[in-house]
């Protein structure tokens, strides 16, 4: 019975799918949201960010999906319901870019957070012999490693130790559980400079997204372990948003190496491989997804619709290609010497040359 209610909620949402894709979220970007590594935030900013996350975990759900109780559940549901459609495909990076932008919007608009949006500088932490010493896994940040001898080692310290999650995979009745972790510094090698440099050497998105979705993406998930290893449920751990913030920062850095060409460079399959979804225990997406994706064929295009489960208006891939644009409205800061230098105007568009030293 519960499974039927969950799937009915999904199907009903598609009645507004195409309309929402047309309207989009396009308020004028006037003040860009600063995004920077967690280590660059002041102690006051860190505390305010943690408080805002706890606010989302306590605020009542607005989706009215069976099993959702909080706004955190609403975000979680958005990822759960389409996990077999947003991974192993060309929309992987654009979809997650919009997803973390919505998370940031909720922090600001519903929980009053006014500081920078942090991301996890995995490249810096990849050199650590143990992640227990990483700043994000301290008691005054996101808490440390899981404890216990069972398969799910629940975190026992930090502000999220007592946070309760509710949603499981589709078809599984909701049940209260805690955030669990199993830190593994060796896995963070996927975020090392040598690893991401290989992705920077690729010149086309069709090949580059596969690189970013490989070791760099798996690094933060695997290194955090526990809940983060579950492709479907991983956004239950707030570290998820710092990890994907870092991945998006790397994609934006790659894009910036050849602006404006890479603002229009999109590709990749729009249906995941059967072997991939099978490995994560999910079926291939059905026509209720693929008939509404906005592509003309089997390749992801700029017209591809990024579905947001009625939390926010759907937008297209084209709408999020530029992080400085009206949808994402952000500006990245990095720990290294990566800089933008305005160089020229081409066809009325400001073009930036990038320098990495």
From TrEMBL:
Keyword Cell wall biogenesis/degradation: no
InterPro entries per record: Di-copper_centre_dom_sf, Tyrosinase/Hemocyanin, Tyrosinase_Cu-bd
SUPFAM superfamilies listed in its UniProt record: Di-copper centre-containing domain
Descriptive protein name: Tyrosinase copper-binding domain-containing protein
Pfam family of the protein (one): Tyrosinase
Every Tyrosinase copper-binding domain range: 237-248
Highest taxon of source: Eukaryota
Keywords: Copper, Metal-binding, Signal
Entry keyword Signal: yes
GO molecular function, one term: metal ion binding
Signal peptide as annotated in the record: 1-20
Taxonomic lineage: Eukaryota, Fungi, Dikarya, Ascomycota, Pezizomycotina
Organism: Neoarthrinium moseri
PROSITE patterns: TYROSINASE_2 (PS00498)
């Amino acid at each position: 019975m519960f499974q039927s209610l969950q799937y009915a909620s999904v199907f009903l949402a598609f009645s507004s799918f195409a309309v929402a894709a047309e309207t989009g979220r396009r308020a004028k970007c006037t003040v860009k949201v600063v995004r920077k590594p967690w280590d660059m935030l002041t102690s006051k900013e860190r505390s305010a960010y943690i408080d805002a996350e706890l606010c989302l975990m306590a605020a009542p759900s607005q989706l009215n999906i069976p099993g959702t109780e909080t706004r955190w559940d609403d975000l979680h549901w958005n990822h759960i319901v389409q996990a077999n459609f947003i991974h192993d495909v060309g929309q992987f990076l654009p979809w997650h870019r919009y997803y973390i932008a919505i998370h940031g919007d909720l922090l600001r608009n519903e929980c009053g957070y006014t500081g920078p949006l942090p991301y996890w500088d995995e490249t810096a932490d990849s050199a650590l012999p143990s992640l227990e010493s990483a700043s994000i896994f301290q008691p005054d940040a996101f808490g440390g490693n899981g404890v216990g001898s069972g398969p799910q080692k629940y975190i026992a310290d930090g502000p999220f130790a007592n946070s309760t999650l509710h949603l499981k995979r589709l078809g599984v009745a909701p049940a209260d559980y805690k955030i669990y972790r199993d830190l593994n510094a060796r896995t963070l090698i996927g975020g090392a400079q040598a690893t991401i440099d290989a992705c920077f050497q690729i010149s086309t998105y069709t090949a580059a997204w596969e690189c970013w979705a490989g070791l760099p993406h798996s690094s933060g998930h695997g290194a955090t372990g526990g809940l983060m290893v579950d492709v479907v449920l991983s956004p239950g751990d707030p570290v998820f948003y710092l990890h994907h913030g870092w991945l998006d920062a790397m994609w934006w850095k790659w894009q910036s190496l050849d602006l404006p060409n890479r603002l229009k460079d999109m590709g990749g399959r729009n249906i995941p491989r059967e072997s991939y979804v099978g490995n994560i225990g999910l079926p291939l997406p059905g026509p209720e997804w693929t008939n509404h994706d906005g592509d003309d064929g089997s390749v992801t295009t700029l017209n591809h619709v990024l579905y947001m489960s009625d939390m926010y208006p759907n937008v297209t891939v084209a709408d999020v290609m530029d992080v400085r644009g009206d949808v994402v409205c952000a500006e990245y800061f990095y720990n290294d010497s990566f800089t933008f230098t305005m160089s020229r105007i081409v066809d009325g568009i400001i073009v930036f040359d990038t320098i990495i030293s």
